[in-house]
Amino acid sequence: MYSRRDLGRLALTGLPVSRLLAKPNSVINGVTIGVQSYSFRDRSLDEAIQAMVDIGFSSCELWQGHVEPKLKREELRQWRLTVSLDEFKKVRAKFKQAGIQLCAYNYSVRDDFTDEEIARGFEMGKALGVKALTASSNVSTAKRVDPFAAKAKMMVAMHNHSNIKPNEFARPDDFEEAMRGTSKYIGVNLDIGHFVAAGFDPVAYLERRHDRMPTIHLKDRKKNQGANLPFGEGDTPIRECLQLLRTRRWKIPAVIEYEYKGADTVAEVRRCFEYCKKALG
Q1: Which domains are present in the chain?
Q2: What is the per-residue pLDDT for 181?
Q3: Using an 8 Å Cβ cutoff, are 123 and 86 in contact?
Q4: Radius of gyration of the chain from Cα atoms?
Q5: What is the pLDDT of residues 165-196, one digit of tens each?
Q6: In the predicted model, is pLDDT for residue 19 greater than 60?
Q7: Which residues share a beta bridge with 133?
Q8: How many CB atoms lie within 10 A of CB 100?
């Protein structure tokens, strides 16, 4: 039963209380299916949370663009260093009241970050209550991030894209270089769609490095730098990756990141979620 105080707190989220009373559950046969809030980049944070509740997600990797203001580079740096951590605690409360667990915070540390900016990311992560940060980062940055991650005891999982470039994550060797000589707190946020588009096997790499993966990203792409497509229409072994998580009982949230072109964001993310449920059914 909810007290009047509970209902009042729910109302503060800005989301309809009737929606929030029914808590979502997106754990399918032991596998947590989550969503990257970047999937809902066409709407505000509150609208994104509403969409997650409507679809039925109970896990989310939070995109920094849903938290940070749109500012020029130096202004954004100052915002990161001076913003009250209470703002992140408020965001955490919104997700908690919606019944959604934040599994990670996407804070893309790159070479132009100062040490203070790197350290601040872990404070933000702790205020949000997450166990890991994910980052579209540079390979060389991992060595700088490592002591801060070890001090915070929070993993930073590096995110890959498909274009093979110096100092960017795309190949297994890029991940291995980042983790070589670092602590257990430098890990992998494997985007299985980008991995396939770059010419690599995500099933094999998941088997090899699952212990350093706090989350994986789900999308479907064709090989040879092919397009993003609706789930099931590309070359990405989404079904096989999900079934591997189920069989091995690895507690790695599989996070949908919607990037292909569709008419309606909520409808397309729901379509992705339904595909995952069938794959695990």
Answers
A1: 24-280 (3.20.20.150)
A2: 95
A3: no
A4: 18
A5: 999 999 999 999 999 999 999 999 999 999 99
A6: no
A7: 105, 156
A8: 23
